[in-house]
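Render this sequence as a predicted structure.
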Amino acid sequence: MKYAIIAAGEGSRLRQEGISEPKPIVKVAGERLIDRLMRIFMANGATQIAVVCNQLTDRVSNHLRDIEKNGLQGQQIPLKFVEKTTPSSMHSFFEVSRYVGDAPFCMTTVDTIFREEEFGRYIAAFKQATADGYDGLMGVTDYIDDEKPLYVGTDGDMGISGFFDEPSGCTYISGGVYGLTPKAIETLRRCISRGESRMRNFQRALVAEGQRLKAWPFSKVLDIDHASDIAKAEEFLGQKPL
Protein backbone atom coordinates (compact mmCIF):
# COMPACT_ATOMS: atom_id res chain seq x y z
CA MET A 1 0.00 0.00 0.00
CA LYS A 2 1.19 3.50 -0.79
CA TYR A 3 1.31 6.43 1.61
CA ALA A 4 1.92 10.16 1.23
CA ILE A 5 2.95 12.91 3.64
CA ILE A 6 2.34 16.62 3.14
CA ALA A 7 5.32 18.31 4.77
CA ALA A 8 5.61 21.55 2.78
CA GLY A 9 4.26 24.03 5.32
CA GLU A 10 6.52 26.73 6.73
CA GLY A 11 5.78 26.15 10.41
CA SER A 12 5.76 29.92 10.93
CA ARG A 13 3.80 29.82 14.19
CA LEU A 14 6.24 27.36 15.73
CA ARG A 15 9.16 29.51 14.65
CA GLN A 16 7.56 32.61 16.16
CA GLU A 17 7.23 30.71 19.44
CA GLY A 18 10.91 29.77 19.60
CA ILE A 19 11.00 26.38 17.86
CA SER A 20 13.97 26.60 15.49
CA GLU A 21 13.55 23.25 13.72
CA PRO A 22 11.33 23.03 10.61
CA LYS A 23 8.07 21.35 11.55
CA PRO A 24 8.76 17.94 9.88
CA ILE A 25 11.82 17.37 12.06
CA VAL A 26 10.37 18.71 15.32
CA LYS A 27 10.59 15.96 17.93
CA VAL A 28 7.64 14.65 19.92
CA ALA A 29 8.50 12.10 22.61
CA GLY A 30 12.03 11.96 21.22
CA GLU A 31 11.00 11.16 17.64
CA ARG A 32 10.84 13.48 14.64
CA LEU A 33 7.32 13.97 13.31
CA ILE A 34 8.17 12.76 9.82
CA ASP A 35 10.14 9.78 11.14
CA ARG A 36 7.22 8.73 13.32
CA LEU A 37 4.83 8.70 10.38
CA MET A 38 7.22 6.74 8.16
CA ARG A 39 7.82 4.19 10.91
CA ILE A 40 4.08 3.72 11.44
CA PHE A 41 3.42 3.49 7.71
CA MET A 42 6.08 0.81 7.33
CA ALA A 43 4.42 -1.14 10.14
CA ASN A 44 1.21 -0.97 8.09
CA GLY A 45 2.52 -2.41 4.86
CA ALA A 46 3.98 0.61 3.05
CA THR A 47 5.31 -0.24 -0.40
CA GLN A 48 6.05 3.41 -1.11
CA ILE A 49 6.04 6.63 0.90
CA ALA A 50 5.82 9.89 -1.05
CA VAL A 51 6.72 13.15 0.69
CA VAL A 52 6.57 16.77 -0.40
CA CYS A 53 8.70 19.30 1.51
CA ASN A 54 9.36 22.97 0.81
CA GLN A 55 12.50 24.61 -0.57
CA LEU A 56 12.82 27.22 2.18
CA THR A 57 15.34 25.16 4.13
CA ASP A 58 17.51 22.19 3.22
CA ARG A 59 17.31 20.67 6.69
CA VAL A 60 14.26 18.57 5.86
CA SER A 61 15.41 17.53 2.38
CA ASN A 62 18.85 16.60 3.74
CA HIS A 63 17.18 14.48 6.40
CA LEU A 64 15.08 12.76 3.75
CA ARG A 65 18.11 12.14 1.55
CA ASP A 66 19.83 10.50 4.49
CA ILE A 67 16.81 8.22 5.04
CA GLU A 68 16.66 7.46 1.32
CA LYS A 69 20.32 6.37 1.43
CA ASN A 70 20.70 4.84 4.90
CA GLY A 71 17.18 3.94 5.99
CA LEU A 72 15.38 4.76 9.23
CA GLN A 73 16.46 3.01 12.41
CA GLY A 74 18.05 0.26 10.33
CA GLN A 75 15.03 -0.20 8.06
CA GLN A 76 15.11 0.69 4.39
CA ILE A 77 12.31 3.08 3.42
CA PRO A 78 10.72 3.04 -0.07
CA LEU A 79 10.84 6.83 -0.16
CA LYS A 80 10.07 9.27 -2.96
CA PHE A 81 10.19 12.95 -2.15
CA VAL A 82 9.60 16.23 -3.93
CA GLU A 83 11.15 19.55 -2.95
CA LYS A 84 8.74 22.33 -3.82
CA THR A 85 7.33 25.33 -2.01
CA THR A 86 3.60 25.23 -2.69
CA PRO A 87 0.86 27.80 -2.10
CA SER A 88 -1.48 25.40 -0.31
CA SER A 89 -1.87 21.89 1.07
CA MET A 90 -3.97 20.98 -1.97
CA HIS A 91 -1.08 21.95 -4.25
CA SER A 92 1.25 19.88 -2.06
CA PHE A 93 -1.08 16.92 -2.54
CA PHE A 94 -0.94 17.51 -6.28
CA GLU A 95 2.87 17.31 -6.21
CA VAL A 96 2.87 13.81 -4.68
CA SER A 97 -0.21 12.55 -6.52
CA ARG A 98 1.90 11.16 -9.38
CA TYR A 99 3.43 8.64 -6.96
CA VAL A 100 0.27 7.36 -5.30
CA GLY A 101 -2.58 7.69 -7.79
CA ASP A 102 -2.58 4.20 -9.29
CA ALA A 103 -4.21 2.37 -6.35
CA PRO A 104 -5.88 3.11 -2.97
CA PHE A 105 -3.54 5.13 -0.79
CA CYS A 106 -3.39 6.91 2.57
CA MET A 107 -2.17 10.46 3.08
CA THR A 108 -1.62 12.62 6.16
CA THR A 109 -0.15 15.98 7.05
CA VAL A 110 3.25 15.74 8.73
CA ASP A 111 2.10 17.04 12.12
CA THR A 112 -0.83 14.65 12.56
CA ILE A 113 -0.59 12.83 15.89
CA PHE A 114 -2.71 9.73 16.52
CA ARG A 115 -2.36 6.47 18.41
CA GLU A 116 -0.52 3.81 16.44
CA GLU A 117 -2.92 1.01 17.32
CA GLU A 118 -5.87 3.09 16.15
CA PHE A 119 -4.13 3.82 12.88
CA GLY A 120 -3.66 0.11 12.27
CA ARG A 121 -7.40 -0.44 12.72
CA TYR A 122 -8.10 2.51 10.44
CA ILE A 123 -5.99 1.03 7.63
CA ALA A 124 -7.78 -2.32 7.97
CA ALA A 125 -11.11 -0.47 7.80
CA PHE A 126 -9.93 1.49 4.75
CA LYS A 127 -9.10 -1.71 2.88
CA GLN A 128 -12.52 -3.10 3.74
CA ALA A 129 -14.26 0.13 2.75
CA THR A 130 -12.67 0.13 -0.71
CA ALA A 131 -13.60 -3.54 -1.11
CA ASP A 132 -17.18 -2.53 -0.28
CA GLY A 133 -17.19 0.10 -3.02
CA TYR A 134 -16.40 3.26 -1.08
CA ASP A 135 -14.18 5.87 -2.68
CA GLY A 136 -12.59 7.06 0.52
CA LEU A 137 -12.32 6.61 4.28
CA MET A 138 -11.59 9.85 6.11
CA GLY A 139 -10.14 9.92 9.60
CA VAL A 140 -12.27 12.07 11.92
CA THR A 141 -12.38 12.86 15.63
CA ASP A 142 -14.79 14.41 18.11
CA TYR A 143 -11.84 15.98 19.94
CA ILE A 144 -11.78 19.62 18.88
CA ASP A 145 -8.64 21.62 19.62
CA ASP A 146 -8.19 23.45 16.35
CA GLU A 147 -8.40 27.13 15.47
CA LYS A 148 -10.34 26.52 12.24
CA PRO A 149 -11.66 22.97 12.28
CA LEU A 150 -13.34 21.39 9.28
CA TYR A 151 -16.60 19.86 10.47
CA VAL A 152 -17.71 16.59 8.90
CA GLY A 153 -21.38 15.75 8.41
CA THR A 154 -22.19 12.05 8.81
CA ASP A 155 -25.25 9.82 8.61
CA GLY A 156 -26.12 6.86 10.82
CA ASP A 157 -23.74 4.56 8.94
CA MET A 158 -20.87 7.08 9.11
CA GLY A 159 -21.32 8.01 5.47
CA ILE A 160 -20.08 11.55 4.84
CA SER A 161 -22.69 14.06 3.71
CA GLY A 162 -20.55 17.19 3.64
CA PHE A 163 -17.66 19.28 4.97
CA PHE A 164 -18.45 22.54 6.75
CA ASP A 165 -16.68 25.55 8.26
CA GLU A 166 -19.34 25.79 10.99
CA PRO A 167 -20.59 22.97 13.28
CA SER A 168 -24.00 22.65 11.60
CA GLY A 169 -24.94 19.89 14.05
CA CYS A 170 -21.83 17.85 13.25
CA THR A 171 -20.23 15.52 15.80
CA TYR A 172 -16.86 15.20 14.10
CA ILE A 173 -14.08 17.25 12.55
CA SER A 174 -11.52 16.19 9.98
CA GLY A 175 -8.46 14.53 11.47
CA GLY A 176 -6.13 15.11 8.53
CA VAL A 177 -5.99 11.40 7.65
CA TYR A 178 -7.20 10.61 4.15
CA GLY A 179 -7.74 7.17 2.68
CA LEU A 180 -8.53 7.62 -1.00
CA THR A 181 -8.77 5.83 -4.34
CA PRO A 182 -7.47 6.93 -7.76
CA LYS A 183 -10.81 8.65 -8.46
CA ALA A 184 -9.73 11.31 -5.97
CA ILE A 185 -6.79 12.29 -8.17
CA GLU A 186 -9.15 13.08 -11.02
CA THR A 187 -11.11 15.37 -8.68
CA LEU A 188 -7.87 16.94 -7.46
CA ARG A 189 -6.80 17.79 -11.01
CA ARG A 190 -10.13 19.46 -11.69
CA CYS A 191 -9.81 21.50 -8.49
CA ILE A 192 -6.33 22.66 -9.47
CA SER A 193 -7.45 23.55 -13.00
CA ARG A 194 -10.25 25.70 -11.52
CA GLY A 195 -7.74 27.60 -9.42
CA GLU A 196 -9.01 26.23 -6.11
CA SER A 197 -6.83 25.66 -3.05
CA ARG A 198 -6.98 24.23 0.49
CA MET A 199 -7.70 20.61 1.27
CA ARG A 200 -11.18 21.41 2.57
CA ASN A 201 -12.18 22.64 -0.89
CA PHE A 202 -10.91 19.39 -2.39
CA GLN A 203 -12.92 17.36 0.13
CA ARG A 204 -16.04 19.34 -0.69
CA ALA A 205 -15.42 18.64 -4.37
CA LEU A 206 -15.33 14.90 -3.64
CA VAL A 207 -18.83 15.13 -2.14
CA ALA A 208 -20.09 17.42 -4.91
CA GLU A 209 -18.95 14.91 -7.52
CA GLY A 210 -20.85 12.11 -5.80
CA GLN A 211 -17.95 10.08 -4.47
CA ARG A 212 -18.87 7.69 -1.67
CA LEU A 213 -16.96 8.67 1.45
CA LYS A 214 -17.09 7.17 4.89
CA ALA A 215 -15.79 8.53 8.21
CA TRP A 216 -13.68 6.54 10.66
CA PRO A 217 -13.50 7.97 14.21
CA PHE A 218 -10.16 8.23 15.97
CA SER A 219 -10.42 8.83 19.72
CA LYS A 220 -8.21 11.89 19.37
CA VAL A 221 -6.07 13.51 16.68
CA LEU A 222 -3.76 16.43 17.42
CA ASP A 223 -1.85 18.84 15.19
CA ILE A 224 1.45 20.50 16.10
CA ASP A 225 0.73 24.13 15.30
CA HIS A 226 2.06 25.78 18.47
CA ALA A 227 4.94 25.07 20.82
CA SER A 228 2.45 24.11 23.54
CA ASP A 229 1.06 21.38 21.26
CA ILE A 230 4.28 19.39 21.66
CA ALA A 231 3.63 18.86 25.37
CA LYS A 232 -0.04 18.05 24.66
CA ALA A 233 0.99 15.43 22.12
CA GLU A 234 3.55 13.87 24.45
CA GLU A 235 0.98 13.65 27.23
CA PHE A 236 -1.55 12.09 24.84
CA LEU A 237 0.90 9.50 23.51
CA GLY A 238 1.92 8.63 27.06
CA GLN A 239 -1.64 7.82 28.11
CA LYS A 240 -2.85 4.24 28.03
CA PRO A 241 -5.63 3.63 25.50
CA LEU A 242 -9.11 3.27 26.95
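Summary. The chain has one domain: 2-238. The CA atoms of residues 176 and 202 lie 13 Å apart.
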